[in-house]
């Protein structure tokens, strides 16, 4: 780990200003990702601005504005507190399931919600400084494109980067149409729709998201929904726990009788950002909830997949996972 | 024997869970500095230049060692090394002696600094220039350029090459399939760690995490050109070994850093280094052909094994079990070995049998299915009554009982022959089984036992407890032989200044060290008894030895407990503050992994004892049973329960023994379902760099594991009758699981690990 300056602060404005004054500075919250990356010499900040004393830790119902009736979760709330919040368990079980599907209890106890959004890919070529990686070092090439890419993207990748976003929580948040509230150095707040928060790699894979320098996630707002428990987070991985998703699916259905009024489907482990399965959603809207329609929806989504050498299985797995997640959602989201 | 066999709690358990047990990296020294290795980023070629200027100027840096400025140490010389007691060296690559690179991640320099963080940081400031050469990484293509080894652990490597072709071709039933297993890494919880402390220029103390203080001392003494008696290796607790600890050069690197800096040096390697620098199990390609007659009796077995090595003689000997299991008129076992530019393969828990039983026991399942015979019955039908190659009887073989006990405990009779017959919700359910086997070796060992007048007893031997329970079972043996309670015994191990014991490898510690402790305790007890018998004040005065019994730290006349004399009383009256005995016990089979010198009183062994070269073949056997649930939509496999029945001789401690088997089965489950080290062929770098990418089972992957022991003492291995059990638990597990997956799904996967994509 390179030496760095440790700068604690109690104040969001000074936190943001420290990052504006030093473009090599980074925020430190739970530290479950950035400290690992610093030990591996992947992240090389010369200053860590400790934001753990900032007060963005509330989980509270939204009482006004466009997301009234929804819930706001603090950018610095812990993942475990968020997952286990009674209101979230009751009304946003998809989020609880997704958070608890990720990492381990110990990591979730440390990791913050903002940090979850900003965690970086676990691509092995990104982590190994001896390897080329455009995300770590733009212009060096993508090691995984022609390398061991079993864990990598099947949607939205570019020749410059085939990495995937590792988060489970974010898959649920994009399905739930969450909004990311950020505050910049100028003290101004802005809202970023979740689907626009993360980026596809394009030719700038070094940028994971659309956060500006000095901006900090203060909260994530999740609007009220009418899923009535018809939601499910499915994660397929190489072992029973503590592994990143090969493919995950967040599915939620708003029903009108047996007719699907609205469907929300998002996928993890398939793209550089949490992947909203718009084709599948479009197909299902107005259809009845049955296996044939679930299969067609999955097909419509996955036919656009472009697998790499080692992850061709993700296309069929993605189809089956979408069908299973929708079926489980219809069954009330239980673990059958 | 009253305490041997009992499920006594680990005597070191409380020390470990309370953090009091001191591991190698925790022996901090005054004025200690830290070393951190620098690793190559090419797989083959030479280092043409080191620019160390920035690193040397970096805060806290004391020295940067490269091949240019490191001290010259002794070169490799296999004959001389063997004479020096280096029975095994992990890798033929003396560090920092030249600029050659043989694999990606090789140690090529060392930074020494005031703190660990400063040393590690400075390594990224080094600028290293290479001249790369084309590396060898693809096993299949490199095998053609490989070699046919002639020797395997001192015996013929190639058995009956080419001789089974006609027999198999003429057999009414035959199968031939190729099975592959992946490269795996050991990853004990504790990484390799050493602290080197010099006293002057010719005395060295090493605190190391090692499976054998003796071999570690021999390596340090030989390569650093020191007198063995001037090197002391201390390793009281070891956080797992599995075959990767004791024979690697990090100790020498630490000592070299200490020579330059005149400081005690701590060197702890990272998890990423564990993935490259301390051995691995080489991947295998195994081609098995079986022929049977109309009745299902095997006519011939052919097992061709392909694997790789790098800087060692060692290669994964995946044909070993095929030389031991099943009766057949002819068997052929051959090897072809490639040389690849990846970190050197080495011994890893059941080297050979772990991947080898996957191939053989999968093939047996396939043949049974072909013949429509129950796979367990098929094994019983072809059970080998004697060692098929040596033709000797086994010293003690209860394999048939393992099968029957396992079948009963597991409920094997509920298995359906045809696959895909059992469902539970969305899961397909399947049963599978396989045979387990591992050699039961024994080597020479020495032990010293001391008893004070206060009744405190110390058992001393340079054995290791790598988590197996050595401390506990040695205390049990001493307690029984001396007739005292376990809490009177203190066991001192893991120190090269103690009487020598073999490395904790090849599942030999229990079989080897206990006879030495037994002999020393008996000698001490007899010396004590002689004092009593000769003592006019003793109630035992003038009695014959056969009239005297012992218990509760007393001798007494058989049938009359009032005629007794306590150990304390005897010692007090005779003015003894402390008495001791030291013995060296060498089995008839020879020194084995032990040391050739007998530092203590040699105790003769009975001619029937471990006389394997002449009369008996020593092996442990077992049967593994698995139930799997397969989610067919996703190809994900959950092992729902396992039954493991083991015939390993006398059980020394029912609790620690069970733990050994459970651990072995979990190790096998990891190999079956998830463990694989993958390399990018362009750079020959491992892309599974840490435990985030290299998956091992987590708690949720591990089902209930039902362990049973046959428990009959082996009458020939030693007076105690206990064989080692560290490795057999892993064998057969991956085949049992793969066979269960076939039974569940009808899909035969011949390639480990059984990841979901292979079943999709």
Structural account:
The complex is a heterodimer of chains A (336) and B (760). In chain A, 29% of the residues lie in helices and 19% in strands. Chain A has 13 helices and twelve strands. The longest helix of chain A is centred in the C-terminal third of the chain and has 18 residues, at 313-330. Chain A is globular, with a radius of gyration of 19 Å. The termini of chain A are far apart. With 760 residues, chain B is α+β, with helices and mostly antiparallel strands. Chain B has a seven-stranded mixed β-sheet, with helices on both faces. Chain B has a five-stranded mixed β-sheet with strand order 17-18-27-28-31, sandwiched between helices. Chain B has a five-stranded mixed β-sheet with strand order 21-20-19-25-26, covered by helices on one side. In chain B, helix 13 links the parallel strand 20 and strand 21. In chain B, helix 13 runs parallel beside helix 14 and helix 16 (654-673) crosses helix 17. Chain B starts with 12 loop residues before the first helix and ends with a helix. The interface between A and B is medium-sized, with 34 and 35 residues.
């Amino acid at each position: 780990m390179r030496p760095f300056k440790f700068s604690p602060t109690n104040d969001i404005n000074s936190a943001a200003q420290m990052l504006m004054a030093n473009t090599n500075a980074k925020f430190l919250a739970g530290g479950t990702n950035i400290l690992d990356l610093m030990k591996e010499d992947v992240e090389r900040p010369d200053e860590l601005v400790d934001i753990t004393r900032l007060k963005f830790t509330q989980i509270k119902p939204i009482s006004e504005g466009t997301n009234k009736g929804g819930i706001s979760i603090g950018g610095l709330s812990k993942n475990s507190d968020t997952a286990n919040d009674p209101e979230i368990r009751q009304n946003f079980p998809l989020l609880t399931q997704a958070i608890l599907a990720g990492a381990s209890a110990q990591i979730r106890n440390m990791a913050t919600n903002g940090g979850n959004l900003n965690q970086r890919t676990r691509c092995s070529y990104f982590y190994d400084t001896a390897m080329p990686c455009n995300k770590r070092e733009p212009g060096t090439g993508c090691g995984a494109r022609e390398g061991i890419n079993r864990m990598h993207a099947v949607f939205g990748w570019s020749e410059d980067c085939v990495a995937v976003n590792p988060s489970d929580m974010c898959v649920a948040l994009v399905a739930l149409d969450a909004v990311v509230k950020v505050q910049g150095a100028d003290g101004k707040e802005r809202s970023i729709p979740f689907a626009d928060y993360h980026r596809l790699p394009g030719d700038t894979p070094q940028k994971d998201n659309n956060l500006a320098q000095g901006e900090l996630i203060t909260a994530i707002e999740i609007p009220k929904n009418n899923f009535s428990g018809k939601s499910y987070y499915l994660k397929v991985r190489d072992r029973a726990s503590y592994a990143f998703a090969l493919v995950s699916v967040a599915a939620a259905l708003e029903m009108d009788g047996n007719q699907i009024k609205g469907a929300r489907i998002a996928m993890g482990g398939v793209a550089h950002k949490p992947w909203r399965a718009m084709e599948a959603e479009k197909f299902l809207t107005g259809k009845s909830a049955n296996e044939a329609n679930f299969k067609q929806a999955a097909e419509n989504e996955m036919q656009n997949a472009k697998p790499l050498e080692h992850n061709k299985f993700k296309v069929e797995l993605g189809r089956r996972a979408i069908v299973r997640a929708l079926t489980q959602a219809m069954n009330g989201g239980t673990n059958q | 024997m009253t305490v041997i066999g009992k499920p006594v709690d680990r005597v070191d358990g409380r020390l470990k869970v309370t953090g009091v047990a001191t591991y190698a990296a925790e022996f901090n020294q005054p004025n200690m500095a830290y070393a951190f290795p620098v690793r190559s980023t090419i797989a083959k070629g030479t280092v043409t230049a080191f620019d160390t200027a920035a690193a040397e100027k970096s805060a806290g840096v004391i020295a940067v060692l490269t091949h240019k400025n490191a001290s010259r140490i002794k070169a490799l010389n296999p004959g001389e090394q063997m004479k020096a007691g280096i029975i095994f060296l992990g890798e033929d690559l003396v560090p920092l002696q030249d600029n050659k690179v043989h694999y990606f991640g090789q140690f090529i320099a060392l930074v020494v600094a005031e703190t660990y963080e400063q040393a590690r940081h400075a390594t990224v400031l080094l600028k290293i220039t290479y001249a790369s050469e084309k590396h060898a990484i693809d096993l299949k293509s490199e095998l053609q350029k490989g070699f046919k080894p002639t020797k395997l652990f001192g015996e013929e490597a190639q058995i009956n090459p080419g001789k089974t072709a006609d027999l198999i071709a003429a057999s009414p039933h035959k199968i031939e399939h190729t099975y592959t297993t992946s490269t795996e890494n050991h990853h004990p919880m504790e990484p390799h760690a050493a602290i080197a402390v010099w006293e002057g220029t010719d005395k060295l103390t090493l605190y190391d995490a090692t499976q054998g203080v003796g071999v570690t001392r021999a390596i340090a003494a030989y390569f650093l050109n020191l007198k063995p008696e001037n090197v002391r290796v201390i390793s009281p607790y070891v956080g797992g070994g599995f075959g990767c600890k004791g024979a690697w050069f990090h100790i020498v690197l630490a000592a070299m850093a200490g020579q330059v800096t005149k400081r005690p040096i701590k060197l702890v390697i990272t998890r990423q280094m564990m993935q490259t620098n301390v051995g691995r199990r080489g991947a295998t390609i195994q081609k098995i052909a079986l022929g049977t007659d109309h009745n299902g009796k095997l006519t011939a077995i052919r097992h061709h094994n392909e694997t790789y090595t790098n800087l060692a003689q060692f290669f994964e000997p995946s044909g070993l079990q095929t030389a031991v299991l099943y009766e057949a008129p002819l068997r052929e076992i051959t090897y072809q070995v490639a040389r690849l530019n990846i970190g050197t393969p080495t011994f890893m828990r059941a080297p050979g049998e772990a991947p080898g039983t996957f191939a053989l026991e999968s093939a047996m399942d396939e043949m049974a299915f072909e013949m429509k015979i129950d796979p367990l019955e098929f094994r019983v039908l072809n059970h080998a009554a004697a060692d098929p190659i040596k033709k000797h009887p086994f010293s003690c073989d209860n394999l048939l009982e393992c099968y029957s006990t396992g079948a009963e405990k597991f409920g094997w009779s509920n298995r359906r022959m045809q696959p895909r017959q059992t469902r539970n919700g969305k899961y397909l359910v399947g049963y599978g089984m396989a045979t387990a086997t591992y050699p039961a070796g024994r080597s020479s060992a020495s032990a010293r036992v001391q008893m004070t007048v206060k009744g405190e007893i110390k058992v001393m031997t340079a054995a290791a407890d790598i988590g197996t329970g050595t401390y506990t079972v040695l205390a049990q043996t001493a307690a029984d032989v001396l007739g005292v309670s376990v809490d009177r015994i203190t066991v001192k191990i893991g120190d090269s200044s103690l009487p020598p014991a073999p490395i904790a490898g090849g599942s030999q510690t229990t079989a080897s060290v206990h006879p030495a402790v037994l002999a020393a305790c008996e000698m001490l007890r007899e010396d004590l008894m002689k004092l009593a018998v000769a003592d006019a004040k003793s109630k035992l005065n003038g009695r014959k030895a056969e009239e005297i019994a012992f218990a509760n730290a007393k001798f007494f006349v058989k049938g009359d407990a009032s005629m007794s004399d306590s150990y304390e009383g005897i010692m007090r009256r005779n003015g003894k503050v402390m008495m001791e005995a030291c013995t060296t016990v060498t089995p008839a089979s020879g020194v084995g992994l032990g040391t050739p010198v007998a530092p203590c009183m040699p105790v003769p062994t009975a001619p029937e004892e471990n006389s394997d070269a002449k009369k008996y073949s020593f092996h442990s056997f077992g049967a593994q049973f698995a139930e799997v649930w397969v989610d067919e939509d996703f190809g994900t496999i959950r092992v729902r329960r396992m039954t493991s029945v083991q015939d390993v001789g006398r059980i020394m401690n029912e609790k620690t023994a069970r733990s050994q088997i459970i651990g072995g089965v979990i190790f096998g489950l990891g190999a079956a379902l998830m463990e694989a080290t993958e390399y990018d062929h362009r750079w020959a770098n491992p892309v599974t760099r840490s435990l985030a990418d290299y998956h091992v089972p987590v708690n949720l992957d591990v089902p209930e594991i039902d362990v049973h022991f046959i428990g009959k003492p082996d009458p020939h291995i030693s007076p105690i009758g206990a064989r080692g059990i560290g490795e057999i638990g892993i064998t057969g597990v991956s085949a049992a699981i793969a066979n269960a997956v076939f039974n569940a799904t009808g899909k035969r996967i011949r390639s480990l690990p059984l990841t979901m994509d292979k079943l999709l």
